[in-house]
Amino acid sequence: MEHAVFLFLVWLNTAAITTLCAGGGQTRFSYSGFAGANLTVDGNATVTPDGLLVLTSSKTNLQGHAFYHTPLQLSTSPGGKVASFAAAFVFAIVSDYTDFSAHGMAFVVAPNKGFPGALPAGYLALLNVQNNGNASNHLLAVELDTTQNTDFKDINANHVGIDINDLHSVWVEYDGDAGRIDVTLAPIRVGNNKPARPLVSAICNLSTVLKEQSYVGFSSATGGINSRHYVLGWSFAMNGPAPAIDIARLPKLPPFGPKPRSKVLAIVLPIATAAAIVAVGSLATLLVLRKLRYAEVLEEWELEFGPHRFSFKDLYHATSGFKSKHLLGAGGFGQVYKGVLGSSKSVCTEVAVKRISHESRQGMKEFIAEVVSIGRLRHRNLAQLLGYCRRKGELLLVYEYMPNGSLDKYLYYREEENKPVLDWAQRFHIIKGVASALLYIHDKWEKVVIHRDVKASNVLLDSEMNGRLGDFGLARLYDHGTDPQTTHIVGTMGYLAPELIRTGRASKLTDVFAFGAFLLEITCGRRPVSIDDDAAQEMLVDWVLEHLREEGSLAHTVDVSLRGQYDVDEVFLVLKLGLLCSHPYTNIRPDMQQVMQYLDGSTPLPDLQPTDMTFSAMALMQNEGFDSYAMSIQSSAGTGSMATAVSAGSIGTISFISGGR
């Protein structure tokens, strides 16, 4: 089906009722395309890169306005004589159907650029039922309408009208003896050769209509049928003729694809439109009722978790509506915002609110139960999970706020984040704090908690630079003495133990493996997976192993930003312990009780024999199904998010979530 395209050049001229305004000031401008034009647009209106002013796109019930950015001085006093002005513009109305279109557009002179409460369709985004016809509108509009509306006394479905404060089309004869408004219209092919006779003339004392300062521009609206409204060029002048528009420089209209035959649509469309109106009305009613009654999703089984649940209203106000200025970071599962709970400064609590997309209800009850259980964890080296809030499609977790942010900012983003270099004493203190936290959740609490995402970006620093293990969004818990269940594999490349990839079963020792990668990371100042000088992936554990095998070379792995200022015995202890925790065989890895004894010096670290440390982490990862492409994504991802999937034998899909969580 062909499109109906109306492309015309319009001249608008007004002659003052008597003499021109005192001073005879002249304002002129001309746009042959609107690229870089100083216009104010709102609604659906936009200017394309090639300079085409699009007032409405091909959707129903849209509004669009475009106005010259500054008001024009039409008279020198309220009710004073209005100066002559002239305008010329090239416009196009494109309908998806040849037989009918959807309303139109108007050239407007108005006291304001905004039209609050204005309706689309026949009101052309200018007026509504209540204010239509009010003298207080101070509005002049030349409508270019493509739909007949008997409510506004339209004469047919293709007409030009001059509207004073309302949308009743006015048609009068031309009278050259009195002040008048002339509207002349011609096809674009005639160029700037304006016809001798205007299409429409109207006599009107504009001094009783227009404000002394008014804006000029365009308004457009669609109704229940798709139409597009464009302005290609525009010129305007006060106290003189409008400048000629350079037709050759006008932007091109976009191409229009085929549409269904209008005869079919003529039958189907009214039915579909009526059904859509009913559906939209029903949906709007349902949404309003749901918003009033269910601002949050709260099911009966959640009542037992009441003390741990926050209201969305409180979290919304705490984060100032989740504004970007409060954004602390973003990761694979969502964004984290800083918030302040409480209205009184004396009782305010700073929190970190994490918004997680969660469309599925499957397993939600069990997940919330685990969140609430984890919220009862109390340890000086844990970032406390305070509670949660649930809405449709969204879960919000509320954490204790850590003012110094995450550890990875101090290791990798010092310049960007303006962070100082952590000295070795601070790093060793953080290491022991995280180890103490892992020992607590593994063995000292009422249940076993497997964190499943131990890494530098999930270690937060409080005001005294104590390390706090945070982000329990992936954590799982089970009773002491029972075996953990197989789950989807989640975590970050470089921290995943080989047996986790192979079996899908997270355990205390998979957390120990990740802790080993963390030890090497904080000591070496390098990520667990990186790119070497030959653009190949390199595992940090392999790199440290190479230096361990070379006599006297282990010190070369220490973070150069420490400038050699560290306790050699402590550094070598941490490096060797990191290798031991990263061993692919679980029977060689220590548990967190042993790790704490090694770090405290109460138990000496066993000697690492070369025969026990002959593995290659890179080879193990590739053997378990990690291809080089997956690892290259992680090595370049930084703290951004990565969600990829690789084959892992019989366990199906493995999801990796990295950074910023």
TrEMBL record:
| Keyword Zinc-finger on entry | no
Its transmembrane ranges are: 264-289
Q: What is this protein called?
A: non-specific serine/threonine protein kinase
Q: Which UniProt keywords apply?
A: ATP-binding, Cell membrane, Glycoprotein, Kinase, Lectin, Membrane, Nucleotide-binding, Serine/threonine-protein kinase, Signal, Transferase, Transmembrane, Transmembrane helix
Superkingdom classification of source: Eukaryota
This enzyme's EC code(s): 2.7.11.1
Subcellular location, record wording: Cell membrane
Please name the SUPFAM superfamilies in this protein's record: Concanavalin A-like lectins/glucanases, Protein kinase-like (PK-like)
Leader peptide range in chain numbering: 1-21
Name any one Pfam family assigned in the record. Pkinase
- Record's family? In the N-terminal section; belongs to the leguminous lectin family. In the C-terminal section; belongs to the protein kinase superfamily. Ser/Thr protein kinase family.
Gene Ontology molecular function:
ATP binding; carbohydrate binding; protein serine/threonine kinase activity
Bilayer topology annotation: Single-pass type I membrane protein
InterPro entries with a match to the protein in the record:
ConA-like_dom_sf, Kinase-like_dom_sf, L-type_Lectin-RKs, Lectin_legB_Mn/Ca_BS, Legume_lectin_dom, Prot_kinase_dom, Protein_kinase_ATP_BS, Ser/Thr_kinase_AS
Its cellular-component GO annotations read:
plasma membrane
Tell me which residues bind ATP. 354
The Protein kinase domain is annotated at 322-586
